[in-house]
Amino acid sequence: MLRYILKRLLLLIPTLLGILAITFAVIQFVPGGPVEQMVAQLSNNQAGAESSGGGSVGWQKGGHLGADEIAELNKLYGFDKPPLQRFGDMLWRFARFDLGDSFFHHQSVGQLIIDKLPVSISLGWWTFLLTYLICIPLGIAKAVYDGSRFDAASSLLILVGYAIPPFVLGLVLLVLFGGGSFWAVFPLGGLTSDNWADLSLGQKITDYLWHMALPITAMVAGNLAVMTVLTKNVFLEEIRRQYVYTARAKGLPERQILLKHVFRNALIPLITGFPAAFIGAFFTGSLLIETLFSLDGLGLLSYQAVIKRDYPVVMGTLYVFTLLGLLAKLLSDLSYMWIDPRIHFDGQER
Predict the structure, then answer these.
(1) Which Pfam families match (predicted)?
(2) Tens digit of pLDDT for each residue in 232-243?
């Protein structure tokens, strides 16, 4: 067991290095980098200043930067060094969990992630929690009453929810309940109200849930179908196994058979995805949902970093998310053994 864990942890290193190396190499060939964007911005500002009768010392005429200014920008962003040296410096910083500083936000990438986490935790955690709390009982009920009217009606509802994109559903919810053309029941956006600091503890909880109701509903609706169908199929497979018929023949109550025997065996494929989903809940971000409901989270941060070519943010967030994802995969594998003692990783049978 310990040998397997050490082996997997050692395998994380080349996997992580490979992902970072590929992404870093692709970045080198992407046009419109931070230097080019800054040159265009400064050149436009200079051209505007000259057209209004102003000027700037040390700048080329006509609104264009000279070679010295461009060299200074390359030095400022660290592009005066060879790519391999920059990649090595980045790896050394990442090894010390120093994610560097953002080109455009003028603060550390780690602090940016921490600042955006409350929104992403709110979206991811509630989506994860409600998805599991709804889908597992619903999937079990659909398996027990397979082929009934309840099964058909619930299947229709979850498939309709799955077919509607979360962004479209969120827009519909805003129109209906966010002060659009119908009822102004929920706020248009934001995580809390402006008077948050003046509210009591109970009022703060109510205000927070009041703001999160619409975006969470939009995100959960699209996640119900996959988990519910998976739960139903797994339980149906277990219910139809021979040991269930044997237990029924012995006169065991149906509830005892379901909870004591079927539930534990059917839980294996469901629980193995739990660690990855749980860790991902703290770092998930939906760009469209965050934009629609004015929530400044990690999804919006990642999108802006790609558009602005904010490479420290792109590489820093990629490093953190990839590392956590690989660790979550390891925990998922280990959860197999925790759920089923017959499974182990020593290459021997028990």
Answers:
(1) BPD_transp_1
(2) 888 888 888 888
The predicted-structure confidence for 88-140, as pLDDT tens digits, reads as follows 999 999 998 898 888 888 889 989 988 888 888 888 888 888 888 898 889 88
Residue with tokens 């000279």: 66
pTM of this prediction?
A: 0.74
Q: What is the residue type of 22?
A: I
Q: Which amino acid is at 264?
A: R
180 pLDDT higher than 50:
yes
